[in-house]
Amino acid sequence: MPLDPASASIIQAGTDIQTAINSAKAGDTIIVGPGEISRFQVDRPLTIVGQGNPIVNAALQKPAIKVLSDDVTITGFRIIGVGKDTTAKFNYYMQNPTAASGTSFDEPNSAIVIMGNGFSIKNCSIFGAQLAISAENVRDLTIQNTTIDSCDTGALVLQSAQIKITACRIVSCRKYGLDIEKSIDVILDNNSIVNNTNIGILLRETDENVIQDNILSTNTFGLSLWNSSYNQVRRNQADHNYYGILVTASSNYNNLTDNLAKDNIRSEIVRGFGIGISLQENSSYNVLIRNTATGNFNGLEISKGCKFNAVYDNNASENKHGIRLNENRNNLVFANNFYRNDINAYENTSLNIWNTTLGNYYNDYQGKDANNDGIGDQPYSLPGPESHSFDYRPLTRSFRQGVLNCTQIRDEVKKYAVFGPADYEYPTISKQNGVVVISRKTPSSPPKWKDSQSFDASAPPFQKENSF
User: Please, are residues 360 and 323 in contact by the beta-carbon 8 Å criterion?
Assistant: First the structure.
């Protein structure tokens, strides 16, 4: 039943905000002044506004804020969390058997627990929690203009829908900045995800999402899609990560467009190694369009069992490898610009397609163009220890007129990607103790490049040429 705004009241609360909540009617607004206030639970639709950044402290196994109702908005609070402390948690439960009843010992210390739909948190800050925000089985969640700092995990969203996280700053988390799993219809827009020790943004088994205009910097993995489909990843900047954007075991219409992956080199992990944009482990039927990769070890890469992906109208420059494909086939790579890389394009144990009616531009192409139509007369051989591929229509001028849309590009894949399966794609059948065992190759991620030498990221690694 819709709330009647005319019947709503504004309540001025003191430090005991719970008393004000208990006396409020659905739709009321509670105003909270500066200073420290007690933890509270919200069990009815309310707007709770902090003025002067009032402070709420969580306690061991007791969140600072617990939301039990639908249609709650909280804004303007500073929330101090409790970090992971296994010994203290065990002692707490031993001393509080009632609290321990029916409760798992592995539940994190959360700063905010959300159990209602239609929840919004805006203009807040959360510091030092094992888990800053916990939301499970919720619909219509908004996190806006909120800072999450020095937590183990910034936000954990499970089995939820209609999630919007925008204009937030998530920094120095030890595990994940955002961990979103088994959810749908998530929008991550204009966030700054910086200096998180493991993964900045993890989307696991999460479909139909938009990840756009985010800064992903100085994480181990900037953005990781794991077994996720129908995602739009666009206009993000990934820099100084180990992997800028990583797509693993994710197929079916993930579109990566207009992203910038630059200087993804983390020598403290593996000297000189870092990947701009990577598709791995059977990620298939995806599209990479108009991305820019520069200053990485591998600018673009497709690795291990990936097929029927399209790589179109991307620019890769000043990387160790502009693009590298390893152990996959039937990917279509065309109308890209590869220039001033140590190795512009590289293929190993793969069989892919490097041209349609036109191929790619390689600044080290040595062939001629007798009729000056912009397409070389001799094919470009793709280097690699087990490469048998050629770009039969290499461009002699840079490609600058991309007009194909995603549907057209996928049609090109269907038309040109016609190689049969590789031997390793067939299952292995054996008989063990009278039982027939069917096995397939086990994924292993991330890949190890045995034949690629790392380079000194502190020194100028590339021979500079005139501006492209």
Answer: no
Structural tokens at position 406: 């995603």
Domain around 110:
1-88+106-206
In this structure, the answer to whether residues 184 and 280 fall within a common structural domain is no
Q: Are strands 390-391 and 380-381 parallel, antiparallel or unpaired?
A: antiparallel
* Cα separations in angstroms, 252 against 121, 186, 285, 287: 33, 17, 5, 9
pTM: 0.86
Q: How does pLDDT run across 157-178, given as a tens digit for each residue?
A: 999 999 999 999 999 999 999 9
Same domain, 177 and 267: no
First to last CA, the chain: 61
DSSP letters spanning 307-356: -S-EEES-EEESSSEEEEEES-EEEEEES-EEES-SEEEEEES-EEE--S
For 163, what's the count of Cα atoms within 13 Å in the CB-facing half-sphere? Answer: 32
d(CA 346, CA 323): 6
pLDDT tens figures, 342-395: 999 999 988 999 999 999 999 999 999 999 999 999 999 999 887 889 999 999
Angle at 243 between CA 242 and CA 244, to 5 degrees: 115
**278, 283, 284, 285 alpha-carbon torsion, rounded to 10°:** -70
DSSP single-letter state for residue 395? B
CB-neighbour burial class of residue 340 (10 A; exposed 0-12, middle 13-18, buried 19+): buried
User: Which helix H or strand E contains 275, and what residues bound it?
Assistant: strand 275-280
Domain count, the chain: 2
